[in-house]
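Next up, sample data:
>
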Amino acid sequence: MKAYDQREGKIWYNNELVDWNDVKLHVLSHGLHYASCVFEGLRVYDGEIFKLEEHTERLFYSAKRMDITIPYSEDEINNATKKIVSVQNVKNGYVRPFAWRGSEMMAVSAQKTKIHVAITTWEWGTYFDPKLKTEGIKLNISKWSRPAPNTIPWDTKASGLYMICTLSKHEAEREGYTDSLMLDHEGNVAEATGANIFFKDKNGELHTPIPDSFLDGITRRTVIEIAKSKNIKVNERKISPKELSNFVGCFLTGTAAEVTPVSKILEQNYEVCNLILDLSSSYEKLVRKKRAA
């Protein structure tokens, strides 16, 4: 894979199309040192951006929660996102819009920093190895927990919240797993490092944690809608790690992960069953429906 700082094309940067290699920020940017940065991740399928408006709305919500005022409207960001995808001629890929504080102040206080905004996009395939979409991935359980909701802006997509996700995923990969299951501050099941999690019980019902200390993913909500359209009951509730052995199936959802089966959490095995594969197939049809039509 080519390094991201060595790619070609354009990046939308502060309302200009800038050559990829010419996009710069100062090493003393507040966003780098104090994690004053919010971002989104979107997918492009057959040239169409999936749920663009919902992602942009969440970007602005995250920014407001982080006391960051994005100097553009939501419509302007939507149009800029479409523009850069067109300029880069991305057909099946990923889009990363983000906003951060600049280098005018270097301290905890950052009242007078400039807010920068950039949108990048590139061709990108599956997040996990494609064969794992049918075989399932393996998770360990992280030693890091999602913090209590009164300690962080937990309902934002902010860079600082992913620090323990990186630590958890690195540890999982060193131990031979694909990803890591994270618990919440109460010790209940929360999410994976970058995706929400679902379980299937013996009766064919789905169970997923209540997102009260971690992000309520756009893909998560989409899959719940798909499941309910198929008359599959979805139980949003607190899930104890002690219950993991009661379930027969498990899968992750996320913009990057899409719908990815889980075959194992530590020593607990799960079946990559038809219900999960059908949800994955239905999600794939949904994200490509405009072209199919």
